[in-house]
Amino acid sequence: MRRILTLAVALAVAAASPLAASPPPRAHVAATAAITARTTGAELKAMLNTLLQEHVYLASAATGAALGGRTAEFQAAAGALDGNSQDLARAIGSVYGDGAGQAFLALWRRHIGFVVDYTTALAAKDQAKQTQAVNALIGYTQDFAAFLAGANPNLPKDAVADLVRTHILTLKDVIDAQASKDPAKTYATLRAAGMHMSMIANPLADAIVKQFPAKFAN
Amino acid sequence: MPTPFRRARRAIAAIAAIAAIAALPLLALAPNASRAPASLRITLFAFDPKTLTVAAGQPVAVTNGDAIEHTVTFGTPDHQDARLGAVTLGANGSATFTPKTPGTYAFYCERHPFMTGTLTVTAP
After folding, report:
1. Which residue of A lies nearest to B49 if distances are taken between CA atoms?
2. Interface confidence (ipTM) of the complex
């Protein structure tokens, strides 16, 4: 239990790093996470699919390491997960401005914090805190949907909230499978959680291209 | 126009002028009567501007451009500032508050604590 709490603190510390502090090994990836004048709509869609699927795989790597008590692996996965968050924020910021990118990063990290809370509660077999974390995650879907709907009028808030809710629940399935030490179920739920992210990435990319047609008229 | 009416018009104009001049000190005693409200906007989970300066007694009109509830809560999550009451804004809502005491006030959104700003209230 103490190890899980220590790992949770480590993730929180990793999440607190500013947007500009990306570790050097990801520089080549960070460069591609920004949308440039030559980015096409297809490239934007591919970028968002890659980043959002990576989010699921890195999150599950972190939660699996946390539940297994593998400290060094957890810290590496948590660091990579935050790098992915910064890449996503950089992509959003390159479309909507630095302020929006920073707000996105803070909001995105918030839901990762709730995932950590759920994982910690699961490890401690604390049903009340599990419920609290799940409720926080469900509440978060409204926040995130409001952010995207506010940024892009082509993204209806309710539809986005439903998609994010499915992301939350499919990721929860992965964490539950990891906690039950069922490898077959873990990887089956992980594939489902990863594949779901295209349901968010594709409409998000399409909505951005529709909002800024001249920007992606390559 | 007959002379009595002309005299009456001049008398009325003179009384109005005297009343206007007499009211000037009263206007000076009501500092916010001539101050337009300052504007604080919430857009995409951020306060705009992040730092705002107003005079004591000057209203601050807050507009929430997000489709989610936000608050303007003074202080920090660990230590709320009781000098100013929190303002809650519903989705796409608006509200006005009027700080009366000079000072510097940090503020944040209670639902989304990463949203922060600073309000400086100067003497009237």
Report:
1. A99
2. 0.83
